[in-house]
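Cont'd.
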Amino acid sequence: MPEIFQYDFMINAFIVGILIAIIIPCIGTVVVLRRLSIMGDALSHISLAGVAAGLVFGINPILSAVVFAVIASLSIEKIRSKIPKYGEISTAVMMSFGIGLAAILSGFVSSANFNSFLFGSLMAINRFEKYLVICLAVVVLTVFILMYRALFYITFDEESARLAGIPVKTITMVFTVLTAVTISVSSRVVGTLVVSSMMVLPVAVSMQIAKSYKQTVVFSVLFSVFFVVSGLIFSFYLDLKPGGTIVMTGVISLVITLLAGKIPGSGRRKIALRGDD
Amino acid sequence: MNGFKRNASGGFGINTKIVTAISLILVFSFILSSCGTGDTGADNGKLTIYTSFYVMYDFATKIGGDKVNVINMVPAGMEPHDWEPSPKDIAGLSGADLFIYSGAGMEGWVDKIVETVNNKNLVVVETSKGITLRESSHSHAHEDGEANTGHFGDEYQYDPHVWLDPMNAKIQMKAIKDALVQVDGKNSGYYEENYNYYAAKLDELDRKYREAAKTFSRKEIVVAHAAYGYLCSAYGIEQIALDSITGGEPTGSRMKEIIDYIREHDIRAIFYDGISSSKTVDAIAAETGIRVAVLSAVEGLSAEDLKAGKDYFSIMEENLRALSEALQQGE
Amino acid sequence: MHVLEVENLSFAYGENYILKDVSFTVEKGDFVGIIGPNGSGKSTLVKLMLKILTPESGKIRILGEDIRKFGEWSKIGYISQKANSFNSDFPATVNEIVGASLLASNGIFRRKPPDFSERVYNALKKVGMQDYGNKLIGRLSGGQQQRVFIARVLVAEPEIMILDEPTVGIDSKSEEALYCLLARLNEELGITIIMVTHDIGEISVHANKLICLGENGFTVHDTADPDSDRIISAIYGFSVNMQNRRCRNCDCMKRAGCD
């Protein structure tokens, strides 16, 4: 058995990393296709502020991160549905608020603690985190599979979905809460910086080769798992930080697929990930 | 042209009123806050001493006794390395008689503060002056010939935790005593007496450590951060640090190195400072089946510890117990 | 039973009454065109019919029921303007899109019906897109996309199809094909068609009824009415010449280019 698997801490890193790698793109596909990538960032930063608040006031930081993220996500969604014009700007404001609050609160918290939420804590997963992630993964996957068709319809054409009798409001709300919880819990494990990237990168790579929505989702998950697994392996043997290595693996993969797409005749698509429509 | 527009009914709009009110409130609070604490001076006959962090606070209180008012800058429970003084803190110094800090890179913000504070009478004491400093080292579990890398990053060339060797602590206390004598000569007898008392206590502490060290069957300790250099070199112990140059968590390969080392050398305990997060050491302990123990670097005390009456000496005694337990264990 | 009944419908954006006391009925099998100059409230009328907006006053009855109580919305198919409907990069295949609509009309959380693939295929066949099942929607031309959206509506077996300016942004050949398709669906499947358009000429070939909305009122009249030109010109405020009159026999349709 290769050396890397002989250590419990690495096995834990793989278990947790792979589970998170599976659920984040499920959320990420919908977020990216709804042109809400900025929301992923905003929620990451709000989670960070929540973590800082928890550390300052002596509350479990994961819990406070989740609470902050859920409240923020529901607020953003509410504004978006009531005043669509302000949807994107309110998300941007929320993101700035998150980062500002996090920065202020970080002054009252030890930087090592804080950093571990920024960059993740993959090398020191404890039992609580392991079981938390397993539960999260089960819940997210179950809900996602149940809502798969409805989410597809809503993401593709919200108005028609409503007319077709799909409970758009409820589903959107459930999905929003799910997004918030996933981002905040995952931030603890892989760090907020990695979470933002993992929401978007695997989907971006997947869209280069996917030929249907289903393929988009499946490939996103596969690529995401690939990034995590190879990122962890590289970081172990090359003595690098795991979080950053995972992200770089994703970036390099995206660049490779984009370059491959430039080969004439392959007919690949470019995609716009952010807001502008 | 009038800057304010009047609305149809001839009054100022609500918005203008609110904006003006908020601006005035902001301006006033800014002015008030920058007034600072003013000069408290020696208002009740006591000297006002500002200390950088806990150890200095403890030493200053001990030497100064009831003739001084000591204010510690880094709050309880915070790590001194992360802390930055606010404008309010700097303002407080303007009314102080002494400012006592350790030095050797421990308080990176000291130069800034000393420059900006507006107090010609402030006596600034760098207590670690005169102590032979150890270079910051990142002890590896195996010889790999790497150059020494800074413990806290490139800014820190030396290990600043000098007070962990009781003999260094004595030098620091003396520096404080000398400064007090200089500033408050009429009480010099009092300060000398205090100093002598604590110097003797330090000698006693040192003796206890030496006695114990003779009985250690192992000479290596595995620690989270390489903060214990002075303690270790004084008593013949080697520290193997999990340390990471950039802070945060170690890489996977570093974790593996430490775990392998622990297994090969039959280490029984892994130490951390008790205030920072123990996640990493917990993970290593879980994997190797060893204990997690606290070896305090006496950098900062939590509010409960302060209330419980802990001080430098009691913590160093706790450290001795922890070390003995780990290193005395027979086969 | 009228398929759609609108009685004294009024709607205002703020203070502006864009629809005032509009009344008309639609019978089963009608092919209705809603025309009028820009800003005359055509899209508003459609949104009211779909319950996206609520009127200030007036009544709407769909399939015999008060719209406020009406629940069988899968019987109403809606096709919006292609331009604003979706993101063309969206990686969905034709099958997935039509399939989603079938699943929604069946009950989105219910099991897939056993004849699922067959029904999707048949719906696509009706619009002539059955060979494009696995193609990505973004790769199709505007006209083809519009046909897929019609298939999406058809798969739910609607009684009424409401289209809001479906020919915007589509080349004229596809436009012709679209009209023929709608005419065929209307003739062969008996689906009532209500279509908003700004193209008076084309619609009057196929529609049997025209509702014309304007600033100073509205009219409803049969396209077979010889007075059509005058009526419509009055609404538009300028002279309008209708190319052809609607006829309901095969010859006429052949002449218009539909087979």
